[in-house]
Amino acid sequence: MSDRIFGAVGLLLALGYAWSALVIEESFLSDAVGPKAFPYIIAAVLALASLAIILRPDAAPHWPTLPRLLEVAAAIVVMLLYANLLPVLGFVFATALAATYLTWRLGTAPISSAVSGCLTSVGIYAVFHLVLGLSLAKGPLGF
Questions:
Q1: Which residues contact 118 (CB under 8 A, 6 or more apart)?
Q2: Residue 136, SS3?
């Protein structure tokens, strides 16, 4: 039963995501695909996966223990903080902090996590801003 509830929550999330994509305004200069295509694809994949969980639930599902659920909750809090701090700190610092925490919680040593988070942030910034020319959130230092 719990799998079906989880699948129903996923299906509602997919519907909400698709509904959110409906309100994205398209510019007359956008390409043929438009800005709504990627959210629609994500919503479709989430809906199909949720339907699969609803239609074929596990007979004896194994849910994570309370400490694991707290780890998931902490990761969600970090991602919410990331979204809120992105305009304040800028892409590079906010991404470095979030990536550092997430890699640390995945089992990397703290120093390695900090190095990995910083390199990930700078690498993504270089690809998306410097190579592809996309605009990313600027922090107090201008990047």
A1: 96, 100
A2: coil
